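Re: beginner question about structure tokens

> Can someone show what the tokenized structure looks like for a real chain? I only ever see the sequence side.

Sure, here's an example I had lying around. Input first:
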Amino acid sequence: MNSTTIGILSDTHQTRLTPDFQEKVKRCFSKVDIILHAGDLTSPDILAAFTGLGKIHAVHGNMCDTAGRRLLPRRLELDINGFKIGLIHKCVSQAYDFEAELLDEFGPIDCIIYGHTHRPVCHRLGETLIINPGAFMSSGRFGAPGTYAILKAGQDLQAEIYEVPRS
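And the corresponding structure tokens:
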């Protein structure tokens, strides 16, 4: 079985394309087949940064403008190499275990990718791989670097979180 490499990002919070953002996107995702954006692009205009890279799928988030909410769905389910992958932004409370709520949202699924918290997560909950790539554009506290994830879909699903290279 061929392996598919998937670049995952979220919470870019960009209102316009900037050279810095475009350069980071190219550096992080130049070798992927598919790109998944888990919401809070802010403006759908930033999708142009992914032109010439892998096929992109995106959902809207709570910070997306009206155009983004109209253009992008709230959630997606994709079949990639026979794996069922759910993509959502999902505004959640940190006060309870919301990952069970994510499982309820999608039902039986191989992988759930979500955004919103700006906290990178990559682990299994039962048989489901749970990924939050974190905030791409270093919107973390105290200048924390941005993060993203790479998911490989081959015989199984394997994912890893990476720091976005600083300019």
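Each token stands for a local structural state, so reading them left to right follows the chain. The longest helix spans residues 19-29.
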